[in-house]
Specification:
Low-confidence stretches: none
Shape: globular
Structural class: alpha/beta
Oligomer: single chain
Radius of gyration: 23 Å
Strand content: 25-35%
Helix content: 25-40%
Number of strands: 7
Number of helices: 5
Mean pLDDT: 86
Bound molecules: zinc ion
Number of domains: 1
Distance between the termini: 81 Å
């Protein structure tokens, strides 16, 4: 077992993500960890999402066209109901296909909605990719699990089973 390799997101080919540079630098692929600082995640701050622990992304580049990213981190944001902090652990892994041109990346995503693709032309940083994944998961906001509005039986909403009982009794031959 060799020591785990720790890369910087500023390493060649990651900032911005450049497919040819990655392939040249890691022709046999690489498995590595990339620590990402909260200060690099500007859009999370804009969405009032903060990290509760250091974010370390595990990254595998196959030397061909695919990078696999994974992370497991605790995040904090404001509950959409009570506006108090709400914490959530987020574990994610995603495969991202790499292309030279934006057209190729678009085509790959169009042909398969499950595919995540970036191109060298997109000029995106690795950290932006991670931000995207986090925002996709919790950017729409979080609520405390016990912070739901209380649905009361006496709220005037008809009970569907009552309706059914009524319907059945109406159909009964008199
Ligand atoms: Zn709440």
């Amino acid at each position: 077992m060799s020591d785990p390799i720790v890369l910087s997101p500023d390493s060649d080919g990651f900032s911005p993500i450049a497919f040819q540079r990655l392939a040249e630098r890691f022709p046999n692929g690489i498995e590595a960890s990339l620590p990402i600082l909260e200060s690099q995640l500007r859009r999370l701050k804009d969405s009032s999402i903060s990290l509760l622990e250091p974010l370390v992304v595990s990254m595998g580049f196959d030397g061909q066209r695919q990078i696999r990213v994974g992370f497991d981190v605790a995040l904090r944001t404001d509950c959409m109901r009570c506006m108090k902090p709400v914490d959530r652990r987020l574990a994610l892994s995603a495969d991202v296909l790499l292309f030279d041109t934006a057209e190729q990346a678009d085509r790959a995503m169009m042909s398969d909605p499950e595919v995540d693709a970036v191109s060298t032309e997109d000029q995106r940083d690795f950290t932006e990719l991670i931000e995207d994944e986090i925002l996709l998961e919790i950017g729409h906001g979080l609520t405390h699990s016990d912070c739901q509005p209380t649905l009361k039986d006496e709220s005037g909403r008809p009970n569907p089973f009552q309706d059914l009982a009524q319907l059945l009794s109406m159909k009964k031959p008199s």
